[in-house]
Design brief:
Helix content is 29%, strand content 17%. By secondary structure, it is an alpha/beta fold. The chain has a single domain (20-237), classed as 3-Layer(aba) Sandwich (Rossmann fold), CATH 3.40.50. It has a 7-stranded mixed beta sheet with strand order 3-2-1-4-5-7-6, with helices on both faces.
Length: 238
């Protein structure tokens, strides 16, 4: 696999590469910036294309839910969301959202505390690149999802993106700990469980003055099959 394990143990955990608890209170500030808001818009548009549209009162398990940013998105789509994260600080922030169709608990993604087939969908958005054993986490997600039409939805940071590479290698911190995924890596993770659908999104100019052009660049990239966007979105139906 290309996601070579270069992480380190965090707070004694063998699962997570980075202690997200130390940035819990400021994590969502990224989405308030023009660049962050645009990436968020494009990433959600990609996940929109993968989400099932025929589930009624579907139960969705979100792995690595963090502050609940994506949990709220899934809830607004009609899912009953159960979010788990290894960081108590992140879960505390998520609970402040007071979502009517969402619950949050501290749990390890590699040993999920749920019975087999408990959920219709399991999702993990920008999580697999921050765990030490992505295949183990995906296997646990599969275990917790119904086998007759259950679904995995994943999002990850693309190794082919020059923007992601520059953020990873120029500084310490969150991005430095990430094991960025190639599109083929995501396919390899999902393929044992069905035929994956992989989308590439997040074509945002490096210059902030041109961020507004991103939807046009996204459209062009979709037509031409470019693979260097910052975000990978994947789906597999069991």
């Amino acid at each position: 696999m290309r996601w070579a394990d270069k992480g380190c143990l965090v707070n004694g955990s063998s699962t997570c590469r980075f202690d997200f608890g130390i940035i819990a209170d400021r994590y969502d500030a990224w989405y308030q910036t023009p660049r962050g808001a645009m990436y968020d818009r494009l990433e959600k548009r990609a996940i929109d294309r993968l989400l099932p549209r025929n589930f009624t009162r579907a139960r969705l398990l979100e792995i690595g839910c963090g502050t609940g940013h994506w949990s709220e998105y899934f809830s607004n789509k009609g899912f009953e969301v159960t979010g788990i994260d290894s960081s108590e600080q992140m879960i505390a922030v998520a609970r402040r959202r007071r979502m009517t169709k969402g619950t949050f608990d501290v749990a390890d993604a590699a040993t999920l505390p749920f019975a087999d087939g408990s959920f219709d969908v399991a999702a993990a958005i920008t999580v697999l690149e921050f765990v030490r054993d992505p295949a183990k986490v995906v296997s646990e997600m599969v275990r917790c999802v119904k086998k007759a039409g259950g679904m995995l939805i994943v999002g990850a940071l693309n190794q082919l993106s020059a923007y992601n590479q520059s953020r990873k290698y120029r500084a310490a911190g969150t991005y430095a700990s990430a094991g960025l995924l190639f599109p083929a890596d995501m396919r390899d993770l999902l393929a044992p469980f069905g035929e994956p659908t992989i989308l590439v999104a997040g074509f945002v100019p490096r210059c902030d003055a041109f961020v507004w052009l991103s939807p046009l660049l996204e459209w062009i990239a979709d037509l031409t099959g470019r693979k260097r966007g910052a975000f990978l979105a994947g789906k597999v139906t069991l």
